[in-house]
Specification:
Length: 136
């Protein structure tokens, strides 16, 4: 994949900061790059735990595939999704769609875009949340 010519999405609540949890974010900030320059930037509403009612805040279960599909519907054409954390189910769903999840400790979208273009936006797998009995 050519980072300089791709589309990258960030989970965010404000368009500036990368959200700490994929499922709780309310927007995607979708940035298209051409020759290492931002050529398009748009904010799209994102379904999340807030969209599915109180049961979405408890244990994850059999409805997860539907929830993940609803949450990721706006990501057509996106190569990479950046978050500061996400559950393993969301991570696997993104991979199944051909979208590379990147879990970063960076807070700012602008800084992360610069690292992405430079080719050094690393993913920290310790930021994957494990849900289920015995895990918090």
């Amino acid at each position: 994949m050519d980072a300089r010519n791709s589309t990258i999405a960030f989970v965010t609540d404000d368009g500036t900061t990368i959200s700490s949890h994929f499922g709780r974010a309310i927007y995607y900030e979708i940035i298209s790059l051409k020759e290492g320059k931002v050529v398009e930037r748009k904010r799209v509403s994102k379904a999340g735990h807030h969209s599915f009612g109180p049961e979405a805040h408890g244990e994850h279960g059999h409805n997860d595939d539907h929830k993940h599909a609803t949450m990721t519907a706006p990501l057509t054409g996106v190569a990479v999704l950046v978050s500061r954390g996400m559950g393993m189910g969301a991570q696997q769903h993104l991979l199944g769609m051909g979208i590379q999840p990147v879990l970063t400790g960076l807070h700012g979208i602008e800084e992360a875009v610069e690292h992405y273009i430079a080719g050094d936006l690393a993913s920290d797998e310790r930021r994957v949340h494990i849900h289920g009995p015995g895990h918090h």
